[in-house]
Design a protein that fits this description.
The protein is of the alpha+beta class. It has two helices and four strands, in the order ββββαα. 36% of the residues lie in helices and 16% in strands.
């Protein structure tokens, strides 16, 4: 079972759809990222890169 590490939604193993999950990480689930959170993360990274002058290295420091 996959569970998004950001929003905790789980992926239905039969349909492949991401569904609302529990508010905590499930022990039996593998950490993953759902398509919605991946899209938001990519948008946030692009925004940080634009603000930071396209890749001066500070983006990694803010994320870590």
């Amino acid at each position: 079972m996959k569970q998004c590490a950001w929003c905790h939604r789980t992926q239905n193993i039969h349909t492949g759809e991401w569904e609302n999950g529990p508010a905590i990480m499930l022990q039996e689930a593998s950490g993953s990222i759902c398509p919605d959170c991946e899209k938001k993360l990519r948008e946030d990274l692009k925004s940080m890169q634009r603000r930071d002058g396209n890749g001066s290295g500070n983006v990694k420091k803010e994320i870590l």
